[in-house]
Amino acid sequence: MSQPDPKLTVYYDGACPLCRAEIGHYSAQEGAGAICFLDVSTPTSDLPPGLTREQALARFHVRRSDGRVASGAEAFVEIWGALPRWRWAARLAGLPGVTLLLELAYRLFLPVRPWLSKAFGKLKS
After folding, report:
1. Could you give the CA distance from residue 53 to residue 75 in angstroms, rounded to a whole number?
2. Terminal CA-to-CA distance of the chain, rounded, Å?
3. 26, 84 in Cβ contact below 8 A?
4. What are phi and psi of 123, to 5 degrees?
5. Scanning 2, 26, 47, 73, which has the fewest C-beta atoms within 10 Å of its C-beta?
6. Residue 77 · residue 60 · CB < 8 Å
7. Residues in CB range of 88: below 8 A, 6 or more apart
8. How many CA atoms lie within 13 A of 116 on its CB side?
9. Distances (CA, A) of 33 to 22, 75, 120
10. How is 38-82 classified by DSSP, letter by letter?
11. What is the pairing mode between strands 35-39 and 61-64?
């Protein structure tokens, strides 16, 4: 009997200490068993059609069970909706304009992510 497709597949940068910590948090949550967490920092990562390794490392992505890929704030909202303790955040993001604001904040975060990751990595050492 084959294993059913996961509700979501999360593509994350396992070489990023900040990303690993966040994914560690999500993967420990109730409901995380329905999510496949895939480290894309290795060249052998299995990526969906149309998503390159460079794209997956540069920006957060998830693939829904129907095959559609979401990125950025929309990807986070997908994870939140799949985890019972985070559904409140998904509902909040569903309010008019909230996901757009989250996406703008995410785009502001991306350029400082490498610096924050290095700083976070030093704290964890």
Report:
1. 17
2. 43
3. no
4. -65, -35
5. 2
6. no
7. none
8. 11
9. 16, 17, 27
10. EE-SSTT----TT--HHHHHHS-EEEETTS-EEETHHHHHHHHHH
11. unpaired
